[in-house]
Every structure is written in structure tokens, then in C-alpha cells.
């Protein structure tokens, strides 16, 4: 297995508004939200009621199917509200934070076995940080993963610099890696070898280079250890690996992280120190005509101005809502403010230019045109156009044949960006995954 991976296919989307490595403020939120919707595959069961006092690390809910999987409060305080949606679906548990934080003591002893590592992940509420492939669901308790993959960098548009985000947390990151290595072999991917993580032990290091989506853990897995039918791989966000290591080193659950505030519509660009569940309005100011995306512009979640930072998110991207129509549109011979992945316009003459992109799609869905553009931005050994059509048709046999076990929607996000037919390709892939879970479980 090679330790070096140079990818040629892909595309770096030149969006304006990258965050410089500077902390612009620190937020101690008044109210924090714990959202069960952040965890795919979770059927939540409440363990608290409004008015209950909790500490940082106290259980708020569990999984109905597996009560030992707990989800804990990131702060100490009082349960202020249980937010429900249609059909009483649990949307969030709101905790009003205390002025002085108190923590559950999980002990400072490093796990000595796979069982001890799993037990600590379960009781701290960090089991939900483990994502299981195929399908991108919360890790199964009885699963035996062949490996655990961690991507210590991101190539997504305006993504947070992982080295800066985890600056000073290398000891915690190492503790998390060493504990996870007791469960399965750990693989850590670095970007061009330019990383503080080059000194990490108890893991196999891989140097990965290339344009986006080279930083996607799914792309790395497809080249380093492809997932075959019946095999399972776990992945974990490096920020949450460090949070797990912090529990091991201190006995306290502290989910505080640096969040990159980015995008052409952001009033002030930089990093904000906060924690998941922090209200968006406390992290950054939001105008009425601005969309707040939790994550990157390709595969992030529309949080809304009244939303809360997600459990897995360490980036906010602010974009203007593109409601205006463009005169002559695509028929214009010269469009200097529009980026094109092809040679249709002249953006290829200014490869270093960044664009003030917005949410305007410049048209709507149309006939599905087969072109080579999908293959050009997918550095995986799959046929994306055939996989997409198999998902649309709900053909399980063809989905298996064309690579459904290897992908999540984010891995084909660039296909959606370059698609001349403007199809919602990520939604199609998710539809196929949902069908696989339903029929193959």
C-alpha cells in the first residue's frame, strides 16, 4: 500500500472569502442546541426534561435501538426547551449555559483495549462521531471495521485549515489516535506532507496531493483501501479525534473548536472560537438576503440565520441569495464575473481569480446530457454517470456494480457543480443510499 497518493482529477472552486488564520472572537453561547438530526441513523430517545440541570458530558438522549449509545451536553446548565417538529419529531434539545462550567469526570486513564475505547466513546457521547461506510451512517456497535480513516486536511472551497484549527492540540490528537488504533488499524491522510501531523504515531500516514475532492476521506479510502461488499470502514473528523483525546488526557468533554467564517457575503472573515450547537447569530452577523451554509458551498447544510452550528461543522460559508436574472444569460459572449469549469467562458485565462459567487443556479433542471465532465472531476475508480442513473432508477444491482458502497453525496458534489443539466446529483446519490439501507439491512 503506497504512502503517497497524487490525484489529477478534480476541481478547486475559486470562491472569494477565505479565512485568514486569525481568531476574530470567542463566543460563550447563552444557549446551545444538541440536534439529533446531525447523526444519520439515530432514532433518539430523550433522557431529560425541561428544567433539568446538566453538566458538560451529561447524557441528554440515547439511541432507541441501542440505549448504550449516548449523546451528551456540550455545556453545563439547564435544559431550556425540547424542540419538536412535524409528528413530534425531535429536532433539538436547547441547554441554557451556566456562567461557570462544570464537567462530568470521565477519568484520565487511557483505554488499554478495544472494549475500553468503545466504552469511553459511548459514555462521553462521542460514539456518534464515528461514521460508518458504506452509507455514511452512525457506526454500528457490533461492526468490525477493517480500518479507521481520518483526513487531516480539507480541499473543499474555503475549508478551515485543520493544522490551524488543531494548533496546540497535537497531544490530544495523538491520544485519540492511539485509543482508536486499539479498535482497528488507523490511516491518517496529510496534504503534501506539510502538516504538524507528520509526527503522529500508531497510525499509517499517507501523503495526498491534488485538487478537490482529494481531501474527502471517501476518495482516499477508494484509493488506499476500497470498500467491497460486506466490508466496513469507520471515519472520524480530526477535530473530534482531538476532542476524544482531550477526554483521555483531562477526563473532561470539551467540544470547543475554531470555526472558519468564510464566503463573499461574510461581514468579517476569520476564525471564531465556539462549540457545536452555538447559534449562528452569535458567531457572525447575517443580513436578510444572505444564506448561511454550515460547511462548504458544495455539500454544506443551509442553517438559516436562526440555526445552530452542527456537531460535525467547523466552517460557516455566507453567500448572497441569487434572486436576480441575468440579461442574455449564457448567451453573453463575455462574462468576467462567472466561473466556468470548462472553456465556455474566459475564466480559464485568470486561473488565480476568486469569484463572488452567490446561490443563483442560472437556470433550472433540464434534459440529462451525458458528457465527460463528471469523470473529469471524480478521482475514483467508478463510472459516476451510470451510478447516478442507477440511483435514479432504484436499480440495486447496478448501484452495487457502479460503486454505491464507495461514495457518499459529498464525493460527487463537484459533479453537481459542473453538471450542465443542473441536476441535484447529491440528492440522487442519497436516494440510492437510503434505498440500499432499506433493502439490504
Keywords:
single chain; 441 residues; alpha/beta; 20 strands
How are the strands of the biggest sheet laid out side by side? 1-14-13-12-15-10-11
Shape: globular
Number of helices: 11
What is the SS-derived class?
alpha/beta
Low-confidence stretches: none
Helical residue percent band: 10-25%
Rg for CA atoms? 22 Å
Q: Looking at the chains present, what oligomeric state does this protein adopt?
A: single chain
What does this structure look like?
The structure is a single chain. This protein has 441 residues and is α/β, with parallel strands linked by helices. It has 11 helices and 20 strands. The strands form 4 sheets. A 7-stranded mixed sheet has the order 1-14-13-12-15-10-11, with helices on one face. Strands 2-17-16-20-18-19 form a 6-stranded mixed sheet, with no helix packed on it. A 4-stranded antiparallel sheet has the order 3-9-8-5, with no helix packed on it. Strand 16 and strand 17 form a beta hairpin. The model has no long low-confidence stretch (mean pLDDT 94).
Short overview:
The chain has about 450 residues and is an alpha/beta fold. It contains 11 helices and 20 strands. The protein is globular, with a radius of gyration of 22 Å.
What does the secondary structure layout of this molecule look like, with pairings?
Blueprint: E1 4-6, E2 23-26, E3 31-34, E4 44-46, E5 53-54, E6 59-63, E7 70-72, E8 77-84, E9 90-97, H1 114-124, E10 131-133, E11 137-138, E12 147-151, H2 162-165, H3 170-180, E13 186-191, E14 204-209, H4 217-224, E15 233-235, H5 238-250, E16 257-262, E17 270-274, H6 280-283, E18 290-294, E19 301-302, E20 315-320, H7 373-376, H8 384-393, H9 396-402, H10 413-418, H11 425-440
Parallel strand pairs: 1-14, 2-17, 12-13, 12-15, 13-14, 16-20
Antiparallel strand pairs: 3-9, 4-6, 5-8, 6-7, 8-9, 10-11, 10-15, 16-17, 18-19, 18-20
Helix pairs in contact: 3-5, 8-9, 8-11
Amino acid at each position: 500500500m503506497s504512502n503517497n497518493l497524487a490525484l489529477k482529477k478534480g476541481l478547486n472552486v475559486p470562491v472569494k472569502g477565505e479565512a485568514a488564520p486569525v481568531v476574530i472572537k470567542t463566543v460563550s453561547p447563552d444557549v446551545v442546541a444538541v440536534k439529533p438530526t446531525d447523526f444519520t441513523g439515530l432514532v433518539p430517545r430523550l433522557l431529560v426534561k425541561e428544567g433539568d440541570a446538566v453538566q458538560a458530558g451529561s447524557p441528554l438522549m440515547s439511541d432507541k435501538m441501542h440505549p448504550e449509545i449516548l449523546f451528551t451536553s456540550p455545556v453545563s446548565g439547564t435544559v431550556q426547551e425540547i424542540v419538536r417538529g412535524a409528528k413530534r419529531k425531535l429536532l433539538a434539545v436547547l441547554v441554557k449555559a451556566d456562567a461557570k462550567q462544570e464537567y462530568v469526570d470521565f477519568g484520565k486513564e487511557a483505554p488499554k483495549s478495544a472494549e475500553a475505547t468503545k466504552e469511553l466513546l459511548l459514555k462521553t457521547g462521542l460514539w456518534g462521531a464515528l461514521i460508518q461506510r458504506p452509507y455514511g451512517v452512525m457506526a454500528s456497535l457490533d461492526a468490525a471495521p477493517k480500518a479507521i480513516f481520518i483526513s487531516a486536511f480539507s480541499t473543499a472551497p474555503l475549508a478551515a485549515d485543520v493544522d490551524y484549527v488543531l494548533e496546540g492540540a497535537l497531544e490530544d490528537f495523538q491520544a485519540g489516535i492511539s485509543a482508536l488504533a486499539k479498535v482497528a488499524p488507523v490511516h491518517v491522510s496529510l496534504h503534501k506532507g506539510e502538516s504538524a501531523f507528520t509526527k503522529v504515531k500508531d497510525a499509517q500516514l499517507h501523503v495526498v496531493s491534488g485538487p478537490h475532492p482529494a481531501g474527502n476521506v471517501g476518495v482516499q479510502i477508494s484509493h488506499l483501501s476500497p470498500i467491497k461488499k460486506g466490508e466496513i470502514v469507520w471515519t472520524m473528523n480530526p477535530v473530534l479525534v482531538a476532542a476524544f483525546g482531550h477526554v483521555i488526557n483531562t477526563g473532561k468533554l470539551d467540544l470547543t473548536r475554531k470555526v472558519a467564517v468564510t464566503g463573499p457575503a461574510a461581514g468579517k472573515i476569520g476564525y471564531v472560537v465556539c462549540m457545536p450547537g452555538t447559534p449562528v447569530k452569535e458567531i457572525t452577523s447575517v443580513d436578510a438576503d444572505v444564506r448561511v451554509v454550515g460547511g462548504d458551498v458544495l455539500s454544506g447544510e443551509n442553517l438559516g440565520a436562526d440555526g445552530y452550528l452542527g456537531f460535525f461543522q467547523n466552517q460557516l460559508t455566507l453567500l448572497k441569495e441569487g434572486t436576480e436574472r441575468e440579461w442574455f444569460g449564457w448567451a453573453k459572449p463575455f462574462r468576467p464575473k462567472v466561473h466556468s469549469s470548462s472553456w465556455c467562458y474566459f475564466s480559464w485565462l485568470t486561473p488565480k481569480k476568486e469569484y463572488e459567487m452567490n446561490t443563483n443556479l442560472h437556470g433550472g433542471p433540464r434534459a440529462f446530457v451525458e458528457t465527460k465532465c463528471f469523470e473529469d472531476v471524480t478521482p475514483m475508480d467508478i463510472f459516476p454517470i451510470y451510478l447516478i442513473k442507477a440511483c435514479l432508477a432504484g436499480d440495486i444491482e447496478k448501484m452495487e456494480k457502479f460503486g454505491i458502497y464507495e461514495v457518499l453525496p459529498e464525493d460527487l458534489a463537484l459533479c453537481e457543480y459542473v453538471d450542465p443539466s443542473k441536476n441535484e446529483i447529491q440528492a440522487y446519490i442519497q436516494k440510492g443510499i437510503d434505498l440500499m439501507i432499506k433493502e439490504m439491512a
